[in-house]
Specification:
Largest sheet of chain A: none
Number of strands of chain A: 0
Number of helices of chain B: 7
Helix content of chain A: over 70%
Shape of chain B: elongated
Distance between the termini of chain A: 57 Å
Oligomer: heterodimer
Number of strands of chain B: 0
Largest interface: A-B, 51 and 49 residues
Radius of gyration of chain B: 21 Å
Helix content of chain B: over 70%
Structural class of chain A: mainly alpha
Chain lengths: ~90, ~220
């Protein structure tokens, strides 16, 4: 079995996640209008990507596993977008 | 399956190799995680729709949330995910079974802390008159259409998530025993990895719930 990347990578990922968390919290106090929502959700998506890639090891997984992992997020994004569009366009 | 160590790690008969078995375990776990995520999909969809319909109610609702508790809980889950990933790493390296068990115990303790803080938060809400369905003085006083919907969504989403945290703690608790007994060892670390993946999903869901219910207010 190849030697795993090491504790250092995990610690780095933890630090990145905490920094992004702090950033998200700080930006929420800055008035950016509609952009507040975009930034908050965008940072959340970035954090989940980091968890998936480096804590859940998607970065070293076979393509078949990555494909399976993408299905739910893609369908949820479609569901939320279309449901909200329904309301907004009435 | 036995607790004795062997020189050649064994795999189940219906797999060609241990590597194939491990891959199948991880693939299957990801498919299951996606189905768990879809359990929340309806709630995310409702959030998007009701927020589009009643933006004022959602902003007012978020203003009443306790950002400190929510943020501390976010940090707790992120740190717990680190320790869960560390447990898998230590078991894969094969050097420290006790280290893996210790990391899992830290993860479980952090999960318990999350649940306690969530309970305290719910108690505060109820004390203020914020209950699911909302027929209390709090909602009459505010009179913003859709405010009850926001808080009912909040209770549903965070309540369902809290149940998942509890299940995750139980799953990891089972793995503490399995690793201790040697049933899950370095050669079969994919089993622990599968259990830890569930915990990461719990963290990932909260990473979205936090901005949705605590940050995206004001404006």
């Amino acid at each position: 079995m190849p030697k795993p990347k090491g504790k250092g990578a995990l610690v780095l990922n933890l630090v990145a996640l905490l920094v992004l968390t702090g950033t998200s919290w700080a930006v929420s106090y800055v008035h950016l209008g509609d952009w507040n929502e975009v930034v908050a959700l965008g940072i959340a998506a970035l954090k989940v990507s980091l968890v998936a890639l480096f804590f859940m090891h998607l970065s070293r997984e076979h393509g078949s596993v990555r494909f399976a992992a993408m299905t739910a997020p893609v369908f949820i994004a479609l569901l939320v977008a279309i449901m909200a569009a329904d309301i907004v366009t009435r | 399956m036995s607790a004795e160590t062997t020189n050649a790690p064994t795999h189940a008969d219906h797999f060609e190799s241990l590597e194939r078995q491990a891959h199948a375990a991880r693939f299957g776990m990801w498919v299951f995680l996606c189905s768990e995520l879809l359990l929340f999909a309806g709630l995310f969809g409702l959030y998007g729709s009701y927020r589009a319909k009643w933006p004022a109610a959602f902003r007012v609702g978020i203003e009443h949330m306790e950002v400190v508790i929510g943020s501390v809980n976010t940090i707790i889950l992120i740190v717990s995910s680190f320790f869960a990933a560390l447990a898998v790493h230590l078991l894969e390296q094969g050097r420290s079974r006790k280290g893996a068990i210790g990391s899992l115990l830290v993860t479980i303790t952090l999960g318990a802390t999350f649940e306690v803080l969530k309970g305290i938060e719910y108690a505060h809400h109820i004390h203020d008159g914020i209950v699911p369905g909302g027929e209390t003085a709090f909602f009459h006083a505010h009179g913003v259409p859709g405010l009850e919907t926001f808080f009912t969504l909040y209770y549903l989403a965070t309540g369902l998530h809290a149940v998942h945290v509890l299940v995750g703690m139980i799953v990891l608790g089972v793995f503490v025993v399995l690793v201790w007994r040697g049933d899950v060892d370095r050669a079969h670390s994919h089993r622990l990895e599968a259990g830890v993946l569930y915990w990461h999903l719990v963290d990932a869901i909260w990473i979205f719930l936090w901005p949705m219910f605590y940050l995206m207010g004001g404006g």
